[in-house]
Amino acid sequence: MAAIGVHLGATCACAAVYKDGRADVVANDAGDRVTPAVVAFSESEEVVGLAAKQSRIRNISNTVVKVKQILGRSPGDPQAKKYIAESKCSIIEKNGKLQYEIDNKLINPEDVAKLIFSKMKETAQSALGSDVNDVVVTVPFDFGENQKNALGEAAAAAGFNVMRLIHEPSAALLAYGIGQDSPTGKRSCKHDIRGNPRAMMKLMNSADIAKHSLSTLGSANCFVDSLYDGLDFDCNVSRARFELICSSLFSKCVEAIKKLLQQVGFTADDINKVVLCGGSARIPKLQQLIKDIFPTVELLNSIPPDEVIPIGAAIEAGILLGKENTLLEEDALIECSAKDILLKGVDESGADKYTVLFPSGTPLPARRQHTLHAPGNISSVCLELYESLGKSPMNEEDKFAQIVLQDLDKKEDGLHDILTVLTMKRDGSLHVTCTDQDTGKCEIITVEVAS
């Protein structure tokens, strides 16, 4: 029994295989465990991976990078507009879809992704020595349905049997079994190379190598032969200088973590494990900033951060091989709640109070129970459910369901205790049971997923 897990990132792709009860990342034909997600086009062939990355300086207008950032997005999407502005390849809109224009040919982003998936399939099958096609593909948590569909269709077009799309954070958790300065003596010149795409690409390549080195070394050399007008570029960058340059980006990461804790009503003390995933998680300064937020928490990074997601995907693929009915369409796309699910109540002052029962990103299926206290002098209680993307305050249009308990026994003193049990299935449907603890009266509703 064998299966494959594939992670297509913004800059790199990685494949892992599940066999004999364990998951391992596999190396490509160049011996690298991570493959650049770069595709170069010529009149006669398409080149994927390291060779395409190495040739993009001389083939810049025909080389596609970071296709994941445009995959499944509409022309009016702000992220798509940003990508188009930065792309060295010509991108046009035709029939409401974005396409690359390369050598007078139009190429869909899905076709570029298909070539990368084909490379990953070839890499995995070579390691397994068999034509295994079963795969779990990872997707970013913030991907919409169109982006998920585009990614899944690209993998299927490459010949994969896509058993499931799994969110990248979920895959990372599975991998850990959770949930289941300028140098002296050189001539200094000032040139603005931002208008020279070839020079910029050469500098970006060298900077990327230096960034990787600074994860383990105190300093790194960034050298580019004949960067501009025949002049070489040579700069030694210390880790401290790198951290200063990236401080604003680190701050955004920290703020995102704090915002998430606030949204779900948790404190740092409520967290007992943190999984580091993604290449940037290798950066020591970022690790320290995360540790500062969670001083008593175990940071799980024994698996290389840029390999943990495909390993988790491979483990999920292995799990699915042992189950029936894994190819249902609804199973293939949803395994985390997309929005916050809240229950409306009233606080001691009589003001509306909203309790988050399912924070967005909750792995599915999931079950929650909550006791709602209502005044004892009323004979009916209406429970209202809301969904939100983190905005506040709640509006009436955010309400998606309500359930009413009637004919309750009034109390002179005390409160009605209403036990609410909510079960959200993997397909996103919600089953709600409300029971009056005194009388045992019960109401049940099921909210199906909107088609």
Automatic annotation (TrEMBL):
The keyword Transit peptide does not apply. The keyword Nucleotide-binding applies. It is found in: Cytoplasm, Cytosol. InterPro entries: ATPase_NBD (IPR043129), HSP70_peptide-bd_sf (IPR029047), Hsp_70_fam (IPR013126), HSPA14_NBD (IPR042049). It comes from the Eukaryota. Keywords: ATP-binding, Chaperone, Cytoplasm, Nucleotide-binding. One of its GO terms (cellular component) is cytosol. One of its GO terms (molecular function) is ATP binding. PANTHER family: HEAT SHOCK PROTEIN 70KDA. Belongs to the heat shock protein 70 family. This is Heat shock protein family A (Hsp70) member 14. It comes from Malurus cyaneus samueli.
